[in-house]
Amino acid sequence: MKLRNKINLYTSFLFAVLLILINSTIYFSFHQLIFDGELNTAKKEIEKTTRDFSDSIGIIPEDDLLRSYVPISGMIQIVSEKNQVTTAVTSPTEQASIQRKDLFYQQEISRLMVYQKKSYIFESMPIILPDGTIANLQIIKGIQTATDNLKILRYVMLAVTMIAFIPVILSSKFLSNLITQPILSMIHTMQEIRVKGRFKRIPLEGHSNDELFKMGETFNHMMDLLEVNYQKQTEFVSNASHELKTPLTIIESYASLLKRRGFSDPDLLLESIEAILSEAIQMKEMTEQLLLLAKQSEQWSVQKEKIQLSALVEQTVHSFKSAYDLNIECRQDHESPLFVETDEKKLKQLMFIFLDNARKYSDQRLTVITGMEKEKVFIKMIDRGIGIPKEDLPKVFDRFYRVDKARSRKQGGSGLGLSLAKEIADAIDVHILLVSEEGIGTTVTLVI
Ligand code: ATP
Ligand code: MG
């Protein structure tokens, strides 16, 4: 069954049950109240009648006396101890309908009874006749007005129930529409995405705080993320295959050169092997970086611990210095030793990426400074090299982006270093500040 029909059915059913329950409670309470009232009045009446009757019997003939006490629609009679009616008077309206039962009761009786689908109250009261014998004064009284009123009440309640159903059905329709509309639109959008293979958003009007609006918003947000990821992925795959094409072409052309003339020309042999080796190393490095970049940030498995910053920086600079035989000045801008909570390996990796760039794009002395500013610990790496043009600054963190393609390729760069640095920095909560001026140099600040 469709959600819309389920909502309609459940709300209508629930309301119907509620309405019937309320109306029947009201009806039966009234029913009880009215009949109790009638019985009470009848009881008081027979008590009074009995008193008056006892006072006048013997003075006024029984027949006349009964006639003066007969109810408008009903009868009055005297039943002897031997279950015989001695005197009885019936009102003209009830002569056809009331069937008399002549039964003597020892005690006072008052109850409801039905004769030929009409309701009556039966009252019986013991009395002492002038001759000293005991008899019953019995009154049967029609309560048609009360039953008629109850009948009207029944009809009114039935009509009210029917009328109340109209707004219930309308509101349940409105409610089901309200709930199912965004869901239907979401299903429609999803189907379109499946069929056309394009990322689509659900149209959302205005702003609301309800769950359905939130669901739509979340869906759209998810689509945004998926689209960005999808774009990144296709871009990445095309970039990667493009970047791998160059070293592979170089290797291929040197290999075919070797095949043709390599055995006869020792210089060419050496050159080719060197070129193939250097391209192979670069490709290996690039694939390693690509693999790291392909990892999701959750898979970085960050292991933070408390470390002394200057010791770590000095150690990193020292190993870098000996690997490349460089002139690096290491300085501390603070007196007391600085401790930070970070992932040592990843911070080192981050420094290596920036020091490698400083090395590649400058020939002069490099400076590394550690210090603290505004309660934040920082590492500054300064080079006095070619710098980065202003318009390229925002792009250097993009994958495969290189300012001078020919030059950085010669230096073995693939343009992945800074994008990897950004991912690592995000994983260990380090903020990167890159300030550079063409021809003057570059300063990288890592704020931990
Ligand atoms: P890789 O680091 O992958 O080996 P790469 O160094 O070319 O290659 P990135 O480290 O991402 O790539 O740097 C991107 C580009 O930014 C570089 O190609 C270079 O043009 C420029 N760049 C980065 N650091 C500096 C720097 N310190 N001085 C001048 N230019 C820089
Ligand atoms: Mg680099």
Which segments are poorly predicted (pLDDT under 50) over 5 or more consecutive residues? none
Q: What's the CATH topology label of the largest domain?
A: Beta-Lactamase
The share of residues in helices is 40-55%
CATH architecture of the largest domain: 2-Layer Sandwich
Question: Ends: how far apart?
Answer: 58 Å
Looking at the chains present, what oligomeric state does this protein adopt? single chain
How many domain regions? 3
The secondary-structure class comes to alpha+beta
**DSSP strand (E) fraction?**
15-25%
| Order of secondary-structure elements | HHEEEEEHHHEHEEHEEHHEE
Give the secondary structure arrangement, pairings included:
Elements: H1 3-56, H2 62-69, E1 74-80, E2 85-90, E3 109-115, E4 118-128, E5 134-142, H3 144-196, H4 211-262, H5 266-294, E6 305-308, H6 309-324, E7 328-332, E8 339-342, H7 344-360, E9 366-373, E10 376-383, H8 405-410, H9 417-427, E11 431-437, E12 441-447
Parallel strand pairs: 7-9
Antiparallel strand pairs: 1-2, 1-5, 3-4, 4-5, 6-8, 9-10, 10-12, 11-12
Helix pairs in contact: 1-3, 3-4, 4-5, 6-7, 7-9
Bound molecules: adenosine-5'-triphosphate and magnesium ion (MG).
